[in-house]
Amino acid sequence: MIDFETEPPGDGLRERNKRDKRARILAAARALFSENGFDATTTREIAERAGVGVGTLFSYARDKRELMYLVFREELEGTRAKAFENVPQEASLVDQLMHVFGHFFDAYDRDRALALDFLRQRFHVFLDAEQAGEEMTGVTLSFFDGLGSLIHDARRRDRLRTDFPVTIAAMNFFAIYLLVVDSWLGSPWQLPRDEFERMLREALTLQVDGLRTRPRLRTVRGGPS
What's this model's pTM, rounded to 2 decimal places? Predict the structure, then answer.
């Protein structure tokens, strides 16, 4: 009788070798992107530092941009999970959004130059029809789902309208955040982070205010009261 729970001889070793190569490739890519920048780093240099052939590297990632995405994907997924896990439930929607986006500010603050390279290369991935599908079904859609849940819950608490698509509102909030964080990371004026967080809060507040319900004007003697 075959024991399907027992790993076939050799299969476990092959899988461990694949995981080890993948980890070495991503570690080498992160280190070189951080040291030299995305544009100056070559896939050959990454392969050499990881101790694999260039052909082997391309079996794990289609190109350098995808390598950059893979470097950040697991870290950002962990950041996303932590951010939404600890959202203060009774806070206003703006405070909840600032809580979530603050976790990503913290993650990017650890290596701002590398984070800026990632965000800008990620934009190019979205323009690539083949890679965009994979990208949009990953961390980004999970992020939109989390934002959508916050917006849905806030409709009652923050007196938001119910005539707008939650997904579109989530995309708007994400776009505002992305613009501010990109400006922060790429700012030539070296403004402090809290200045950009203040701008983000003001922009989010303006957006949320536009989603609030408004009492209907009562007409008295032919004119609004």
Answer: 0.80
